[in-house]
Amino acid sequence: VLVDFPQRVKLAPDLQRTNLALAERFNVTHFPTLIALDGNGMEMGRLKFSDETVESLKQILENWVSTFKK
Question: In terms of residue numbers, what domain contains 22?
Fold first, then answer.
């Protein structure tokens, strides 16, 4: 699921409410944030983007996958 909070484009009010509810549910305080969820909607990992490189992001995601495949 992609939840977006665009700054230049106005979202429809219902989509805006849905996005805000998800941000509150998952306590998102930093943008952009990537949250990995399992099939039950439980958080597996969270990444608040700042100065990550493609390689560091790849490593983080590979670690998440290997950790939660067990």
Answer: 13-68
